[in-house]
Amino acid sequence: MLKHTVLTIALLACLVVNSTSYDKYAINFYPGNRNDEPANTEPFIKINDGYYYFGMDGSNWYVAYEKCRALKSELVTFDTAEEFEAIANYLKARGDKNSYWTSGNDLGREGTYNWFTTGQKFTISKWAPGQPDNYKGLEHCIHMGYIWKSSTDFELDDRPCSNDKNSLFHYICEAPQQETISLVVWK
Ligand SMILES: [Ca+2]
Ligand SMILES: [Ca+2]
Question: Which is one Pfam family of this protein (predicted)?
């Protein structure tokens, strides 16, 4: 949608420029949101530089992914420890100790944990003690939560992606990075 809008503006700009004097009219495009115009990002919540949706219905990993895709987003990927901490702090601030699916899994290659959204390997070390353990050889999808009864913070763990009534978790969807432009017309 955004690309179409930009293209449409660009085409209109060409028409205006072509049909009028170059001396009299100039159109400048600027990246970003120069006047901090409010943008409606519902149902996504802005946390640091990202936009996230917290799905509160219990779903297996595949259903969670489908629900994020239906919102034109993906299950969350933690590119940095800071991003993980920001989400954990947000949940802690609202007293939320639920488990949430992420896009992480080792479905492709057992023992190799990638973010499904980006294809990148895990670079953060937020595993709960003793995890990932691939318990009974059935655990391939990664959730964040208070993993053990003794846990005092959010950490990561592998659990069965589906076919497990004890692994129906909430989920975090992450919207693609937003791009905004400002259009200034001089005349
Ligand atoms: Ca596994
Ligand atoms: Ca596990």
Answer: Lectin_C
CB atoms inside a 10 Å sphere around CB 159: 24
Q: Alpha helices of 20-103 — where are they, by DSSP H? A: 61-70, 81-93
Q: How far is the CA of 138 from the centre of ligand 2 (A)?
A: 9
pLDDT tens digits, residue range 57-109? Answer: 999 999 999 999 999 999 999 999 999 999 999 999 999 999 999 999 999 99
Largest CA distance in the chain: 74
Q: What is the CATH number of domain 45-174?
A: 3.10.100.10
CA of 159, nearest ligand number? 2
Identity of the amino acid at 148? W
Ligand at minimal distance from the CA of 99 is 2
Name the pTM for this structure.
0.78
